Amino acid sequence: MADKSVIERKFEQGLFASRWLMAPMYLGLVVSLAMLMVVFLRELAYYAPQVLVMSSDKAILAILTLIDLTLAANLLVIVLFSGYENFVSKLDIDDGGDRPSWMGTVDFSGLKMKLIASIVAISAIHLLKRFMEIGQADADAAFGATELKWLVVIHLTFVISGVLMAAMDWMTARSGKKY
């Protein structure tokens, strides 16, 4: 096999280096994570003083809101670390043993599954919150029967998509092919 030309080699090096164009996007996800933290703290500050006079339903809704925000933040961290390591560069950090066990082991297929699982969980929490608000005048005005029906349809679409993605990954693994 003949040696590659200088032009081809330089082109391939430039193409490979272009992955660094993703780095600012991951930095943007860090900013998004900080934004979610601010929203979480704002929600916590809003609900905490009400805890002694809050009904159990209101407390559950408040907790579901905080869980929803936390799951979204977890999703951001997974995409941030896994995406960076899969598509840009390995994180070469001295973590003092604090490195999460999944870091460096989540491939694109695993990232897809973690992503869809997080989306399904977030969707389920959002749907549960809406169902718990049934009968409340302000919630009924915003979420009538039609809106609730669409929330269920969208959630089921996420669930079915996740099952189909898992089935495709399973079939690909069984076939022994790498994509």
From TrEMBL:
It is a multi-pass membrane protein. The chain crosses the membrane at residues 20-40, 60-81, 148-168. Pfam families: UPF0114. Keywords: Cell membrane, Membrane, Transmembrane, Transmembrane helix. One of its GO terms (cellular component) is plasma membrane. It is found in: Cell membrane. InterPro entries: UPF0114, UPF0114_bac. The keyword Cell membrane applies. Belongs to the UPF0114 family. This is UPF0114 protein GGR17_000888.
